[in-house]
Amino acid sequence: MALLDAKNTFGFVAGNLAIDKCIEMAHTYGMGMVSVRNSNHYGMGL
């Protein structure tokens, strides 16, 4: 499991970073889980 501090950035930016990290972890460990904190509104999503 990983924790991503978005440092008050846009939610969609933090979401993309979290997805990339989750995919990387899944390739390495077979699964990935990322929690995001300190981000703004995610908007319409990806």
TrEMBL record:
The keyword Oxidoreductase applies. One of its GO terms (molecular function) is oxidoreductase activity. Gene3D superfamilies: Hypothetical oxidoreductase yiak, domain 2. The keyword Oxidoreductase applies. It comes from the Eukaryota. Keywords: Oxidoreductase. SUPFAM superfamilies: L-sulfolactate dehydrogenase-like. It holds the Pfam family Ldh_2. Belongs to the LDH2/MDH2 oxidoreductase family. This is Malate/L-lactate dehydrogenase.
